[in-house]
Design brief:
alpha/beta; Aminopeptidase; Aminopeptidase i, Domain 2; 2 domains; nine-stranded mixed sheet; six-stranded antiparallel sheet; 10 helices; about 25% strand
Length: about 450
């Protein structure tokens, strides 16, 4: 069985413990966006989805929208999973859920080797808004994509060292007496991880060849790589009553997993789509990001007539699922007093007057109604008026394809840290709401009744 969906055993009963264990496995298998998409694709294929190649003709183009389940990937780091339902697309529209596969991290530079006092270090770039302090004194590993040239041409392989490979040691307090009063980090000189101590002229490419081993012919040339460091401490249920899940990359693999399991659990009547984009943490402007053409291109191929596509999207709705800031008991004053979400109290609707979130009163009302039908209460997050607000793929996707959208998420602590925290009761609640959303036949997103 792969994840919660198996070829022979079918769906397991989805309860809190089953879902959380599956989530922990998903997080552990997904150290980079490339590995996330591979894991999602593996699960979807096991559940009967058919892979479509963007470079080839599709059987469901030119109006041939027969019921079926499909998946499309781009750049190995973004994925769309699509269910063509049995009900009329023109009547129901499409139920869309969006999330992102990337997380803030340290990415290896193209020529990374730094030899300093017998130590081999790797130069890194800071990807996204990383909370840097927690990266110190962690057992780090490397994972990502390697591109090679062989006898048959250029090809790529995924790599994951898995074992502790590097560390960024803290400077002893004896050498920095003011560290607990004030600490600033220079990302160029303070954070290159140490890999080993050697007098030999060893390179990262040497280590990659050793790690790729049987998966790569010995004479093939490593042309380039996209590698990220990650914490080897595995995801875990923690707390005296296991009330919490601690893991790297909860932002936003938590939502990717919820969207994936909910889509596979849906009944297949209503056409539904899950899109998980790369590069959200750096602005989404890429071929595979939410500001790029990936989703719009797929929709255009499915519904070639522009007028019909507009009508269908007007009957559709997108839920942009990304984590929300839970009210931290030690820093409660960083929240608006009336909008401090709690962990383990259900999905959080995210609202911003300046459209950093795409929620409006109609999409919020529809989501609340769906949640209420599932017996689930919602929370609300609005940032303090004197603080800057983050954003998501929601406003970008709404801008690109014109679909009614709202932003939601689960409350978390430590967002953008190397290890984040969410409530262990919340994933099931989000799964239940999204599954009900995927099964919802009618949405009145464009109706206004004069009283």
């Amino acid at each position: 069985m792969v994840g919660l969906a198996g070829k022979s055993t079918g769906w397991l009963k989805v309860n809190k413990d089953t879902l959380n264990q599956d989530l922990l496995g998903f997080l552990a298998a997904s150290p980079t966006p490339f590995h996330t998409v591979k894991e999602m694709q593996t699960r979807l294929l096991a559940a009967g989805f058919i892979r479509l190649d963007e470079s080839e003709a599709w059987p469901l183009e030119s109006g041939n929208l027969l019921p079926g389940k499909y998946l499309i990937t781009r750049n190995d780091s973004s994925i769309i999973a699509l269910v063509i339902g049995t009900e009329s697309l023109q009547d129901t529209g499409i139920r869309l859920v969006g999330a992102h596969t990337d997380s803030p991290c340290l990415k290896v530079k193209p020529q990374p080797e730094i030899r300093n006092h017998t130590y081999l270090q790797l130069g890194v770039e800071v990807y996204g808004g990383v909370l840097l302090n927690p990266w110190y004194d962690r057992d780090l590993s490397l994972a990502g994509r390697v591109t090679l040239k062989g006898k048959t041409g250029v090809y790529s392989r995924l790599v994951d060292f898995r074992r502790p490979l590097a560390v960024i040691p803290s400077l002893a307090i004896h050498l920095d007496r003011e560290v607990n009063n004030q600490r600033s980090i220079n990302p160029q000189k303070d954070i290159p991880p140490i890999l080993l101590q050697t007098e030999k002229d060893l390179t990262l490419r040497d280590l990659l060849r050793e790690e790729l081993g049987d998966n790569t012919p010995g004479g093939d040339e490593i042309l380039s790589f996209e590698l990220s460091f990650y914490d080897t401490q595995p995801p875990a249920l923690i707390g005296a009553r296991e009330d919490f899940i601690a893991s790297a990359r909860l932002d936003n693999l938590l939502s990717c997993h919820a969207g994936l399991t909910s889509l596979m659990k849906s009944d297949g009547r209503v056409s539904s789509l899950l899109v998980c984009n790369d590069h959200e943490e750096v602005g989404s402007a890429s071929t595979s990001g939410a500001q790029g053409p990936f989703l719009a291109s797929v929709l255009e191929r499915l519904i070639s007539d522009a007028g019909e596509r507009t009508r269908i999207l007007a009957r559709s709705m997108l839920i942009s699922a990304d984590n929300a800031h839970g009210i931290h008991p030690n820093y409660a004053d960083r929240h608006d007093a009336n909008h401090g979400p709690l962990l383990n109290r259900g999905p959080v609707i995210k609202i911003n007057a300046n459209q950093r979130y795409a929620t409006n009163s109609v999409t919020e009302g529809l989501f609340r109604a769906i949640a209420k039908e599932a017996g689930i209460e919602c929370q609300t997050f609005v940032t303090r008026t004197d603080m800057a607000c983050g954003s998501t793929i929601g406003p970008l996707t709404a801008t690109e394809i014109g679909v009614p959208t709202l932003d939601i998420g689960l409350a978390t602590f430590g967002m953008h840290s190397i290890r984040e925290l969410c409530g262990s009761h919340d994933p099931l609640l989000l799964h239940q709401v999204l599954t009900r959303f995927f099964n919802q036949s009618s949405l009145s997103t464009n109706r206004f009744i004069d009283q």
